[in-house]
Amino acid sequence: MSDIRTGYIEAFQKQRAKSREAARRAAIARFGELGLPTRRAENWRFTNLRPLEQRLFPPAPAGTVPAATLPPLYRLGVPSHRFVLVNGRFAPALSDMGDLPLGVSLRPLAESAPALAPALDAPFLRESNPFLALNAAFFEDGFDLSMTDVVAGEQPSPPPELDRPIEILHLAAAANPVSLHTRNRLCIPPGRRCTIVETFAGSGPYWTNAVLEIAIGDGAALRHIVLQDEGKEAVHLGHRRIRLGAGARYDGFTLALGSQLSRQDTIVTIEGERAECLLNGAYLLRGSQEATIATLIDHAAPGSATREVFKGVVADRAHGVFQGKIVVRQAAQKTDAHQLNKNLLLGRQAVVDTKPELEIYADDVKCSHGAAIGDLDENALFYLRARGLTAAEARRMLIDAFAGEAIDLVADGAARSYLRRHLERWLAAREE
Amino acid sequence: MLEITNLHARLADGREILKGVDLTVKAGEVHAIMGPNGSGKSTLAGVLAGRPGYEVTAGSVAYEGRDLLALAPDERAREGLFLAFQYPVEIPGVNNMYFLRAALNAVRRQRGEAELDAGQFLKAARAKLKLLDIGEDLLQRPVNVGFSGGEKKRNEIFQMAMLEPKLAILDETDSGLDIDALRVVANGVNKLRSPERAAILITHYQRLLDYVVPDVVHVLSHGRIVRSGDKSLATELECRGYAFLDDAAAE
Ligand SMILES: Nc1ncnc2c1ncn2[C@@H]1O[C@H](COP(=O)(O)OP(=O)(O)OP(=O)(O)O)[C@@H](O)[C@H]1O
Ligand SMILES: [Mg+2]
């Protein structure tokens, strides 16, 4: 394992990064101190990182975007502003940003990074997450969405809601092991609202190490839908930080289907009063897939609400992990926070670890959490079969219903049918 | 059509529930099975439909000349056997219409008939609903979820009407129904009556049998059929209760 650590340090020395030289050096040094997480670290206890321990994924070489096409499978199917990254870099030929409304900017982070340099990494390097350090050392690109504030009385004043959803595609194609480190930013200023549909997909032995920072200003709202459908051999680490202002609303949904190993960390900090955080999702795993959903929702201001529901379908020899923590600080009186994790275990060798956690320091709050692991309902299976459906059809119908109920939490119609299509595809592939 | 011979079945815990049931149902006939609570009526229905959890330890069941017990539950259904559940199961997240179309198409494939697309299905479903006087909103709801007791029973009858089984087994479909719903159930069975089909009505009450007149009435007690007769047997049970069976046995 120390070979792997040295491997990344050597890869860093070999590559000639043009910008942010000092920041990158600090980051790789931090990675050198930390190394890969071990199972002794509480936060990584359940996640089996073997694929990252066994082989080195050198960063994708700078400056080249491999030719690629846009698979129809990953088109949202409604008019959108589309931003495509291939192997971690902006791919203008596949992107179609259309006419962005006045005051809205969607551009490659490579363009804005030099200006943002000092602000980009400092908080990440203070933490003991080596993947954040590695990302800081290697990232070159990503998407950067920003908007101007809606100021009362301004002429002409932009409409609060963005005209179309924004589609972000992270595509990957690798013949040899590569790592794709992207840094992405979403900044929704006060009063603005928008919908983002993000998709990860690809083929080959690649490792996605994506970091996304989201700031949602006072009274602003973001609907954020993520489809993680990475290739079979892929490793996916997604790290998201979300800050919510007063009266802000984050409505997030993740459907995780792909990759041999995936882990998605979502850290939400509720900084303003009366904010709302909806954090939902589903993971469907088969074969020997490994997936971790780790969430931390930190209520630091009073009167805010959290609704979190994650549903898991874990088949064959797969391993699913849910680690969900909600912290309610002393100042966060009148917090209303509820968390639920439900799992279907569909195989003698399938494993689920679920660890819901509440940490409450305020006394006037309404909080709950729950977790369940179960099999398909025998009575329901028999009822369906007694009407003529084969055992396989009956099972499929019940799995579809279980995961579909989670997808029904997605408010945006186009995004909901997009995820539905991918769920159906997963179920159909399972029967083959 | 159905020939049950010396059927013995027990639960997983070893308790024997069916202790030698003999019953023959011919095409075109309607049989009623009555009997005290816990006598094994639902167990018999469950064994016929292939419900897991029962072990047949002796006897045989021939359905249209084939060994019924060798078929999987869904094969039995596709071969035209239908069980209206005493306690229909709630299935959250599964749309009633979607479910029933899948079931109907499974049965139609088996019968060598063309599958129905969504539009054709809807048309057929609406016609049956109208005939049975059932509201259309039932189609859009998840299977049995939040249905009242009566709605669940109506849904069973609606499914039966759509699937057009050769042999329908109704397990207390008349229990807990108001008089209008009872007519729906009776209507559903009578509409299916034909020389090629048969039905077994498990019931506690004569009132269903006023609407659907059975050819034979049986009494199941302690896992055996202890009496068979015509419709007047039901009337006798209604006024004298099951105790008279024990008296008769003691004589
Ligand atoms: N799956 C099961 N698990 C445990 N016990 C069972 C099961 N099925 C049947 N039994 C038991 O077997 C006996 C017969 O039950 P069954 O449901 O067949 O009776 P029934 O004649 O249908 O009664 P009712 O008129 O109340 O519906 C009862 O003692 C019941 O508790
Ligand atoms: Mg019963």
Description:
The complex is a heterodimer of chains A (432) and B (251). Chain A contains eight helices and 19 strands. Chain A folds into two domains: 3-272, no CATH class; 377-432, no CATH class. The model of chain A has no long low-confidence stretch (mean pLDDT 92). Chain A has 432 residues and is α/β, with parallel strands linked by helices. In chain A, helix 2 (21-34) packs parallel to helix 4. In chain A, the strands form two sheets. A ten-stranded mixed beta sheet of chain A has the order 2-1-5-7-9-11-13-15-17-19, covered by helices on one side. Chain A has a nine-stranded mixed beta sheet with strand order 3-4-6-8-10-12-14-16-18. The longest helix of chain A is centred in the last third of the chain and has 19 residues, at 413-431. Chain B is globular, with a radius of gyration of 18 Å. By secondary structure, chain B is α/β, with parallel strands linked by helices. Chain B has helices at 41-49, 73-78, 96-111, 118-132, 149-163, 179-192, 206-211, 231-240, 243-250; strands at residues 2-11, 16-25, 30-34, 54-63, 66-67, 81-84, 167-171, 198-202, 216-221, 224-229. Chain B has nine helices and ten strands. In chain B, the strands form two sheets. In chain B, strands 6-7-8-3-9-10 form a six-stranded mixed beta sheet, with helices on both faces. Chain B has a four-stranded antiparallel beta sheet with strand order 2-1-4-5. Classes of the chains: A alpha/beta (432), B alpha/beta (251). At the A-B interface, helix 6 and helix 7 of A face helix 2 and helix 3 of B. Residues 11, 17, 35, 37-43, 53, 86 of chain B line the site of adenosine-5'-triphosphate.
